[in-house]
């Protein structure tokens, strides 16, 4: 703590909790990408909005960069601090501030883990419906910063739809109360929406008012085995046409093999190239019959080769584990991750082109596919062979990402569906956003963060 | 057409349709506010995005202000051209460009009337669910510019939720394709959302990709007579708890009297101080029974004094006319309109305070109330007495608006729920948005419109 800047920080924000141990610097300086070496100046753990504001003012005086930090489960390097930044961790600001039954809102501090948000909503008989596998570790503030999606988007949309209000500290240290839970508010630019997905480059989300909704009806979970990729959209359309879908997720045989090797239970006798996990409302005889009709029609058409439907909550969880366990099961292979999207109707053509592209580009690499087919979102994970160095592997993968980016331009897609741009996707942002848009983003950043102290180098270079 | 600037405009955009007749200048220079004297330079009616771009570039060269213009049904002066501006009317750009069944999207030009959008969606067995009384005249581009709300917000949200993509020409003449119908897209700042509700001050919306949805189930419409304002939230909670509400609207006895005088049919024997029109899904015996149970419970509690339920589509329309006919019925009194909102839970306290305030402030004026109780949105129309001059009347009303704005600050509300700020609400913007937010708005405007040619003086002064 001999750095005079830190001494001034503690003088300016007297009760601030600050960490500078090597272990802490490493822990708080990186996210799940593991590609950059953490090297923050220090870790600040404010407990109040005023402390956050004090830190931002200090950072402006000293021109120290701040990396806002939630659960650091990000996959794009958005929360990496590799250049002497101050990490501003929201982890102590993790409480429910208010529940309002009439407004159906839950007001929380930004550091609250998503799972804790779920639990708090459930206590009141309601749900916060955004959900994904990192729920136990990720924070709601990070969800907002990346407009997190997940496994329920097909039914409930992205994080963006569930934010009734935000409290934000801008790059110049102003505290903004954005939208304040109003259902209708046509009073100028919606900076709440601008903040959502801005990856901590415009402001630090410190509190959020979340919209809640009714719990879904009882559901069933089905696993479907598919003989080929080509029938995936047919199966999706059949199920979507007959049922109220809560989720519709796909993965490949390679993905399944990794999850089974990681301890999951084998679901079907034989192996198939592609699988779907779908969850749907099934609360009476009519909806159960509709599910069976959809399944049987797909079997008759040859679109589905086998399947199983959950008979209990435990079995539903076993089926879900096959999909949700993938990321963890392949983590030890340091996968290079692509998280791309196209509009739903462009999916078949894009899938075909991408499959051919990756087959040619990665003959020696193992590629694990999964994704949210009903949202047009594919996750393509390339696993690092043990005999390849980290650097060589990333170089080879980035060559292919450039080809993938070209395919995205052609099909009107996005280089990041839900992970965000961060550092990992920054070189490819122009495949999704025009040069004019990127120039406007730089201009807007300048307005909210004139000294460029908030998460600099993420999303785009200044 | 002797103005050399117009000669240069026609030289730059050769096939541009331009109007300069006095009648056209008056017609296109004003909106429904009728408070400002129209005085535009000319009316341009482009037919293509390229022509719009050409006009904007010309405007930048000559520093001529542009007023983007849709159906001019606005109630805040957002489309008024009273200072030698060029009105850029989108009325010729009014076509459907694409329908996509898989994406469930309708791509339209911005000048398309809302009702034509409804009809185009219906042709494909789907609906565009944003709806309000001006549907026949207003344009979808204007809806987007003000984030229009209306009578179905309680079920479907505002315009903001239904925009999958926008094509926009910025103040510097760049054409942006924003979001391009992607369901998931986490690739930097969401300028689509920033444009929605920006009242033509950042860019001109030229095309929009609209999300469509399934038609609602069969519905019934009920008229309820209430003995007092105080029970309104009780009735709302009772109906919301038991039914899938499509709409829940209220109005006062004075409002009803004007609609009856304007030709509507008297719905009930006696008169009551307050009325509710509610529409709800009613497609089987269970939902019909739930509606009757809600009604009977409210009668038993004394919250509802009388009521009628629609027995036919024709009767449903008659009941709706009582609510939807109000604006037209009071139009001849040149009403001073307030369009305010608070969060739903703040409604009872705000209603009480506002009622007292207006009772004191306007002992000699007739005040007509109606609104969207389930969205926290109140419309307060003050009718001009015949013996009062327009100027005197507005001055007196603005005095009260200042008091109302203070009440909004106290209750955390908005000076504009759905009409937008425009010219009418500009003096009161600071009751809803902080000085820091307004300064940031000015900064963002500067980024998108560096020469300040787009709708200057609307929303805020430069």
Automatic annotation (TrEMBL), chains A, B:
Keywords: FAD, Flavoprotein, Metal-binding, Oxidoreductase, Zinc
Coiled-coil blocks: none
Top enzyme category: oxidoreductase
InterPro entries: FAD-bd_oxidored_4_C, FAD-bd_PCMH, FAD-bd_PCMH-like_sf, FAD-bd_PCMH_sub2, FAD-linked_Oxase-like_C, FAD-oxidored/transferase_4, Oxid_FAD_bind_N, Vanillyl_alc_oxidase_C-sub2
UniProt domain FAD-binding PCMH-type: residue ranges: 36-215
Named cofactor requirement(s): FAD
Protein name in the entry: D-2-hydroxyglutarate dehydrogenase
Organism: Pseudoxanthomonas suwonensis (strain 11-1)
Lineage: Bacteria, Pseudomonadati, Pseudomonadota, Gammaproteobacteria, Lysobacterales
């Amino acid at each position: 703590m001999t750095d005079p800047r830190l001494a001034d920080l503690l003088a300016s924000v007297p009760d601030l909790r600050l960490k500078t141990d090597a272990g802490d610097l490493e822990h708080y300086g990186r996210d799940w990408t593991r590609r950059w070496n953490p090297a923050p100046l220090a870790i600040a753990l404010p407990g109040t909005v005023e402390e956050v504001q004090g830190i931002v003012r200090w950072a402006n005086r000293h021109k120290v960069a701040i990396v806002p930090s939630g659960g650091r489960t990000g996959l794009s390097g958005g929360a990496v601090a590799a250049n002497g930044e101050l990490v501003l961790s929201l982890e102590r600001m993790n409480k429910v501030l208010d529940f309002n039954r009439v407004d159906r809102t839950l007001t929380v501090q930004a550091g609250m883990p998503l799972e804790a948000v779920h639990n708090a909503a459930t206590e009141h008989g309601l749900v916060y419906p955004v959900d994904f596998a990192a729920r136990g570790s990720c924070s709601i503030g990070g969800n907002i910063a990346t407009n997190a999606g997940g496994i329920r988007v097909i039914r409930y949309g992205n994080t963006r739809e569930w934010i009734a209000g935000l409290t934000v500290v801008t790059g110049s240290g102003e505290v903004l109360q954005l939208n304040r839970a109003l259902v209708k508010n046509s009073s100028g630019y919606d900076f709440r929406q601008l903040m959502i997905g801005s990856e901590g480059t415009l402001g630090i989300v410190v509190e959020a008012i979340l919209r809640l909704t009714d719990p879904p009806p009882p559901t069933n979970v089905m696993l479907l085995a598919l003989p080929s990729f080509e029938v995936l959209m047919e199966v999706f359309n059949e199920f979507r046409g007959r049922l109220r879908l809560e989720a519709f997720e796909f993965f490949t045989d390679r993905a399944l093999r990794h999850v089974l090797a990681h301890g999951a239970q084998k679901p079907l006798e034989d192996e198939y190239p592609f699988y779907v996990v779908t969850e749907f409302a099934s609360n009476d005889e009519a909806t159960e019959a509709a599910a069976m009709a959809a399944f049987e029609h797909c079997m008759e058409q040859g679109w589905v080769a086998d399947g199983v439907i959950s008979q209990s909550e435990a079995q539903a969880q076993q089926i879900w584990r096959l999909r949700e366990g993938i990321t963890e099961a392949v983590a030890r292979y340091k996968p290079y991750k692509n998280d791309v999207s196209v509009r739903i109707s462009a999916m078949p053509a894009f899938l075909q082109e991408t499959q051919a592209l990756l087959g040619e580009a990665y003959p020696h690499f193992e590629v694990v596919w999964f994704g949210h087919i009903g949202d047009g979102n594919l996750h393509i994970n390339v696993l690092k062979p043990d005999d390849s160095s980290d650097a060589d592997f990333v170089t080879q993968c980035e060559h292919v990402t450039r080809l993938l980016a070209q395919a995205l331009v052609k099909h009107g897609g996005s280089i990041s569906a839900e992970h965000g741009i961060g550092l990992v996707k920054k070189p490819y942002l122009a495949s999704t956003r025009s040069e004019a848009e990127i120039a406007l983003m730089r201009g807007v950043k300048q307005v909210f963060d004139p000294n460029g102290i908030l998460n600099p180098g993420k999303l785009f270079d200044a």
